[in-house]
Amino acid sequence: MKYLVDKGEKLRLDVYLADETEYTRSYIKQLIDGGYALVNGSDKIKCGSIVKDGDEIELNPPEVITTAEPKDIPIELIYEDDDIAVVNKQQGLTVHPAPGNYDNTLVNALLFRLKNLSAINGALRPGIVHRLDKNTSGVIIIAKNDKAHLSLSRQIADRAVTKIYLGLIDGHLKEKSGRINAPIGRSPRDRKLMAIVPEGRTAITDYEVIESIGAHDLVKFNILTGRTHQIRIHAKSLGHPITGDEEYGSGAKYGSKGQLLHAYSLTVKHPKTEEEMTFTAPLPERFEKILKLLREKER
Question: Which residues are catalytic?
Answer without folding.
Answer: 133
